[in-house]
Amino acid sequence: MYFDLIPESQGAVVLVLNPLDALGENQVLEKNLAGYTAINLTKMNFDEETSNAILDGYYNFIYLSPEIYLNIATRTTRHSDLVAMDAIMKCLKLNDDDLTILRGELTRPKIRMIRVNMEHSLASTLDLVKLFLSANNVSDEELVPTLLIRRFHSCTGDQDKKDVVADFSEGKFPVISCTMALGLGQNWKRVRMVAHVGRGDPVNICQMIGRCGRDGRKGLAVMFVEKNRCGGKNSVDQFKRGASQNNQDRLDAMAITPLCMRVAYSMDNLLSYVPLWPDDPEYILKKQPQEEKFGECLCSCCNPAAAKRLLGNLVFANTNNFDQIVKDKFHTTEIRDLASKYPAKRVSLRKRKVPDAERPILDSFKSQLTDDLHDHYEHTFGSGGRYNASEIFGEEEAQAIVLYLPQINTTHNLRCVIGGKCFDGQLQWLFEKISNFKAHLSSTTRPGAHKKARVSSAPALMSTNNQLTRTRGPNEPDVIVSQAAPPSGSTPPSKTALVAQQARQQSLEKKEKKDVARIAHEKRLAQIALFTREVLEEAEKKNKTKQALTQPNPTYLKGLASNEKSQEARWATDY
After folding, report:
1. pLDDT of residue 111 exceeding 50
2. Rounded to whole angstroms, how far apart are CA atoms 455 and 425?
3. What are phi and psi of 479, to 5 degrees?
4. Which of 26, 103, 276, 307 could covalently link to 300 via disulfide, CB atoms 3.0 to 4.6 Å apart?
C-alpha cells in the first residue's frame, strides 16, 4: 500500500532488514503473487549479477539478511563513532527530521493463550491428541489450519521447504509440524491455531504464537508445558523476589506464573523478566492499561474454568465453528471419547519360574518340539540348504517358549518370544503345537476331572490323538510313553502334595549341605590355627638358638679369667 503511494516514475526501491531467511522467502512469495518484483538477498546469492540488477532498479522490494554485510571486509569496521554516523546520514541525504521510530504495541489481544500442564512425556506428544478430531468426525478440508504434522525444520532440503510452504498456502493440507525455522518466519493468513510443546524461550514462543490470527480473526495459542523440568525451577517459591532472571529462569517462570499471560509476555518483551507475584509494581502498572485498552483477558490464568471448557470443545472444532469455540459461544451435548485415539498399552511378557515338578515334562516337550520343527523344516525345504535346521530353531528359542508358555496366546506373542520368524508358516506351525500341548496339559491337571495316567514325557500331550503313543514317520522310531500306575486301593497324591513334599525334601537337602559346609569350614579354621601355632613355635626356637650363638657363656669367661691368673703366677715364680 505504501509502495503504491510513490510515483512510478521515481522507480522506488524498498529495503527491509530481515533477520530470518524463512520470513524473507515468505515475503518474496507474497510480493510476487501481488505482481511486484522482490528478492531475498542473502550471503549465498549476493553476487555481481544480482548487484547489477539491484542497481538497475529491477527489484521493487529487497529483503536483506544481516549476514549480507559480512561479504565486504570494510563493513566489519567500527561505525559507532559520531563521525561515522554523520557520514552515513550525509551519504543517505538524511537529517534528524527524516528519522522516525515507530513503536507499536506488542500485545496481540485477538490471540487467546491457553497453558496446559502435560500429562504425558514430551517425547510421546500424546497431549496433542486433545487438539484434533478423529478422521471419522472431520475431513482434512474442514480441519482447523494449525502450525504443528508435516515435517519442516532447518535440516529440511530447500526444495522440500518450498513444496511444504506452497502446498500449505494452497490449502492442500491443514497442519504443519515445525520448529522455529518455520514457526518464526511466515505470514500466513489461514493459520488459526498454534500449538507449542515443551518449555521454551518466552521471546521465541511469543513470536511463534503470533503466526496465528494474522487475518484479523481470533487466534488460539495452546502451550503444553512440563509439570516438572529436571534441573529447573518448578514452583514460585524457588524464585527470589527482586533477583534478576536469566534465560533459564524466564523459561521456567513463564511455565508456572499464575499471573495474566498477556501481561507476562508483554513485560518479558519490554523488561526482560516474567512477573510471578500479583503485587509486583510493574505488573500492576501494566495490567490496568491493557484491560482498559483491550478488554478482559481470557487466558488460562485469568479464566481457568473457561480455558478448561475450551480445551474440551476442541475435539469438535472445524473451520465452521472454530470462532464460536474461541469466543466460548459453542455448546453441545455430544460426548466424544478420546480413548480410541491413544495407542494401546503394550503388554509386557514376563518369564515364569518353572516348578521342579513340571520340569521333566517341559524338558521333554522342549526336546520334542525342537526335533519336530527340524523334521518339518527339512521335509519342507530339503536338507543341505544354506541354513541348517539348528540355525533356524535351537535350544535358545525352545527355552524361551517354555519360560513364557502361559503367556503365548497368539502368534504375535510367539513372535515376540522367539524374536520373529525365519520362514513362512513357522509361527503358525509352532503355535499349533504349543496350543495342543497346553490343551492336553490343562486337561490332565484340571481339578475335579477324572484322574488320568500321569505321563513322564511330552509327545502324548503334543499329539492331537487321545492315544498315549504318537505315530511318527516311516524313518522315525516310535516313542513309548510310560505310565505311573498308582498302588491298588489308594488315591494318587495330588500335584500340590507332590510339590510340597518335593519342597520339603529340597529344604532338608539344603540344610544338610549347609551343615556339611559349616563342619568343613570349622575343620579348615582348626587346621589353619594349628599350622600357625607350629610356625610360631618353630620361629621362637630358631630365635633362641641364634641368641645363644651370638652371646658369650659366663662360665667360660670365668674359667678363662682363672687360667690367666694362674699363668701370671707361674711367670712371677720363674722370674
Report:
1. yes
2. 30
3. -100, 120
4. 307
Q: Which three cell numbers stand for residue 68?
A: 549480507
C-alpha cell, 117 = 500442564
CATH placement of domain 111-341: 3.40.50.300
Architecture of domain 3-98 in this structure: 3-Layer(aba) Sandwich (3.40)
Q: Could you write out the three-class secondary structure of 148-205?
A: CCEEECCCCCHHHHHHHHHHHHCCCCCEEEECHHHHCCCCCCCCCEEEEECCCCHHHH
Query: Mind listing the pLDDT tens digit for each residue in 215-234?
Result: 889 999 999 999 888 888 99
- Dihedral of CA atoms 567, 570, 572, 575 in degrees, nearest 10, equals -130
* HEC per residue, 372-394: HHHHHHHHHHCCCCCCCHHHHCC
Instruction: Say if CB 160 and CB 183 are below 8 A apart.
Output: no
Nearest-CA neighbor of 162 among 14, 16, 15, 32? Answer: 32
Which one-letter DSSP state was computed for residue 217?
A: S
Confidence grade of residue 570 (pLDDT, cut at 50, 70, 90) = low
Please write the tens of the pLDDT for every residue from 146-173.
886 444 556 677 788 778 888 888 888 8
Other C-beta atoms within 10 Å of 53: how many?
Answer: 13
pLDDT of residue 250: 93
pLDDT at 356 (0 to 100): 80
DSSP class per residue in 309-338: HHHHHGGG--TTTHHHHHTT----------
Grid coordinates representing 244?
534478576
Cell digits of residue 230: 529436571
DSSP helix, strand, coil percent of the chain (3-state; round to 5):
50, 10, 40
Contact call for residues 12 and 39 (beta carbons, < 8 A): no
- Secondary structure (H, E, C), 516-571: HHHHHHHHHHHHHHHHHHHHHHHHHHHHHHHHHHHCCCHHHHHHHHHHHHHHHHHH
Instruction: Give the three cell numbers for residue 184.
Output: 518464526
List the grid coordinates of 59.
527489484
What is residue 490's predicted lDDT score, i.e. its pLDDT?
52
* Model confidence pLDDT, tens digit, residues 468-477: 334 344 444 4
Higher pLDDT among residues 21 and 309, named by residue: 309
Going by the DSSP 8-state scheme, the letter that residue 136 receives in this structure is T
Which residues lie below 8 Å from residue 289, measured CB to CB, with a gap of 6+? none
Residue 476's pLDDT is: 44
- Which run of H or of E encompasses 366? helix 359-381
Nearest C-alpha neighbor of 400 from the set 415, 422, 421: 415
**What's the DSSP call for residue 424?**
T
